[in-house]
Design goal:
This protein is of the alpha/beta class. The chain is built from ten helices and eleven strands. It is globular and about 45 Å long. The chain has two domains: about 230 residues, Glycoside hydrolase/deacetylase (TIM Barrel); about 40 residues.
């Protein structure tokens, strides 16, 4: 089975990065402005060879579809209901939203009522663990089982039906992580490896996803969801390089990544502030000269 699954997180109004989902430099890297997300949707809508589906539809139809496109959203930020769902529905599409259940009802995250509303509108709700651990692959077997089983039970109670899919927090997938998810009853587990082909882990499907970040162009998103071979290949090369670096650098990689993203954000902010200052000074000079 194949599917080109785009991996999104939050969609927020310009200048409101902390309004939805997790906060911080690393989390903000995965948040799109509403305008950029709109551009993605319009670009994808123009792709003649793309049929948008949900994980539920693929599970029902197995291999009957020829590599459909899927929208997936991690972290269950409140923008799922305030910004994302209606935009998808305007095109007749539905998304797959993955919820870290410890954060339900907290500021910036979906409430119980909002999760149920998304479900009733045809969107798929899945587990994103309970606590969204920093490194889920380093948990003990008992901790892994609790993360998947408890989160699935909480969501099943909200939806009044079994939860059948989940996504791995942080992309830290391993066979142990998958085994615990399968034991919790999940039928599909999404990770962050940029591949379109699904494979079986026991009775459960493992599905890769194609990453979207704050600066991903709309044209690239359209190529990814179309499973364009060269575009997907480049993502795989980047992913494999990053995976090797993580393995060699260990926890230093995570600290370095956090520092780098904070530095980039500050640099961007200084650049914007400097531009605004130049504009103000320029206007002041024009005003003074006219007087």
């Amino acid at each position: 089975m194949q599917a080109a699954t785009l991996l999104y997180h939050d969609v927020v109004p310009t200048g409101q990065l902390d309004s939805s989902g997790f906060c911080g430099a690393v989390a903000n890297r995965y948040k799109l402005t509403c305008d950029r997300f709109d551009a993605h949707l319009f670009a994808i809508a123009t792709c003649r060879n793309v049929t948008v589906a949900t994980a539920r539809e693929l599970l029902r139809e197995a291999s009957n579809r020829q590599c459909p496109g899927l929208f997936s959203f991690d972290d269950a930020g409140v923008s799922a209901i305030t910004e994302i769902s209606e935009r998808l529905e305007a095109f007749g599409w539905r998304g797959n939203f993955f919820v870290p259940t410890n954060y339900i009802g907290q500021s910036g995250f979906l409430s119980v009522a909002q999760i149920l509303e998304l479900h009733e509108r045809g969107h798929v709700i899945g587990s994103h663990s309970c606590s969204h651990p920093r490194r889920i692959d380093e948990l003990s077997d008992r901790e892994l089982q609790a993360e998947w089983a408890e989160s699935s039970a909480i969501l099943s109670d909200i939806l009044r039906e079994p939860v059948f899919c989940g996504s791995v927090p942080g992309g830290f997938y391993s066979a142990r992580v998958a085994t615990a998810a399968e034991q919790a009853g999940l039928k599909i587990l999404f990770n962050s490896e940029p591949v379109c082909r699904w494979f079986k882990h026991g009775s459960m499907w493992i599905a890769g996803r194609l990453p979207i970040v704050d600066h991903t162009p709309a044209t690239k998103a359209a190529k990814l969801v179309s499973a364009d071979p060269m575009t997907v290949f480049r993502e795989q090369a980047l992913w494999n390089g990053k995976k090797l670096t993580k393995a060699v650098a260990g926890r230093f990689y995570q600290r370095a990544s956090e520092w780098l993203h904070r530095h980039k954000y500050r640099s961007r902010k200084v650049s914007v502030d400097d531009s605004l200052l130049s504009l103000v000074l320029s206007n002041d000079r024009r005003t003074t000269s006219s007087e």
